[in-house]
From TrEMBL:
It is an enzyme of class 2 (transferase). Transmembrane segments: none annotated. This is Adenylate kinase. Belongs to the adenylate kinase family. Keywords: ATP-binding, Cytoplasm, Kinase, Nucleotide biosynthesis, Nucleotide-binding, Transferase. Residues 30-59 are annotated as: NMP. Its EC number is 2.7.4.3. The keyword Transferase applies. Pathway: Purine metabolism; AMP biosynthesis via salvage pathway; AMP from ADP: step 1/1. AMP binds at residues 31, 36, 57-59, 85-88, 92, 155, 166.
């Protein structure tokens, strides 16, 4: 299964991806996680991305496209992948099309999580992540276990000013790729409002049960 998750910051892409990669046995490729790792490791790519990420801006297309296309070309993606956070501009979507066509494979679905802006700031500013397990928590909606409290991370772009900038970028740069995938007949809309379990049920309804990917 080759699937893309699209949605505003805090829509629940990462939360739902954790479930899907377990049930469908495919790698979760998050461009945000890859960029954060590059920043932590101080690589050239990380240095190019760091300031833009902290401001809530997008990292330039030429930096992100090469990084993700190289990643989905690795052997563990031969049977499928779940892309989270990429593509998020029209040039990224077109570059992905070219790379998939060159590899002789096609996308199965593009899932759009729909969550109103009014819910986003509270979701994002309350997020905490566990660097040991990769689990995503929320101080109010999905409270972390007490034994994890001391090691939880609050992302440097999860403050109100950066979230507002990210939402603006989403509407201006990413929302326009929705009609691109709609025209290809790939778009599946999922209501992202409700408990994470309710959203998972809706997601499984549009993706179908897990099957062996080819
Ligand atoms: P990225 O890491 O991709 O961030 P994002 O798209 O803004 O998405 P988030 O990770 O903030 O949210 P999410 O939808 O995964 O929500 P989550 O499940 O965690 O990108 C970060 C930055 O990297 C960008 O700003 C940009 O600078 C750069 N970048 C990345 N990719 C790029 C690209 N392709 N091109 C250019 N630049 C790029 O949930 C959020 C919170 O809500 C959590 O606390 C969770 O517990 C809670 N929650 C989840 N579901 C629910 C629910 N149903 N009800 C209540 N709470 C919920």
């Amino acid at each position: 299964m080759r699937t893309i998750l699209i949605g505003p910051p805090g829509a629940g892409k990462g939360t739902q991806a954790q479930f899907i990669v377990n049930t469908h046995g495919i790698p979760h490729i998050s461009s945000g996680d890859m960029l954060r790792e590059a920043v932590r490791n101080g690589t050239e790519l990380g240095k190019k991305a760091d300031a833009a990420m902290k401001r809530g801006d997008l990292v330039p297309d030429d930096v992100v496209i090469g990084m993700v296309i190289e990643r989905i070309g690795r052997p563990d993606c031969a049977r499928g992948f779940l892309l989270d956070g990429f593509p998020r501009t029209r040039p990224q979507a077109e570059a992905l099309d070219v790379a998939l066509a060159a590899a002789g494979v096609a996308l199965d679905a593009v899932v759009l999580f729909e969550v109103p802006d009014s819910l986003i700031v509270e979701r994002v500013t309350g997020r905490r992540s566990d660097p040991e397990t990769g689990a995503i928590y929320h101080l109010k909606f999905n409270p972390p276990p007490t034994d994890a409290l001391g090691r939880l991370v609050h992302r440097s772009d999860d403050f109100e000013a950066a979230v507002t900038a990210r939402l603006d970028k989403y509407h201006r740069e990413t929302a326009p790729i929705v009609p691109f995938y709609e025209a290809k007949g790939l778009l599946k809309r999922v209501d992202g409002v409700g408990s994470p379990d309710e959203v998972t049920a809706r997601l499984l309804a549009v993706l179908g049960a897990p099957r062996s990917a080819g």
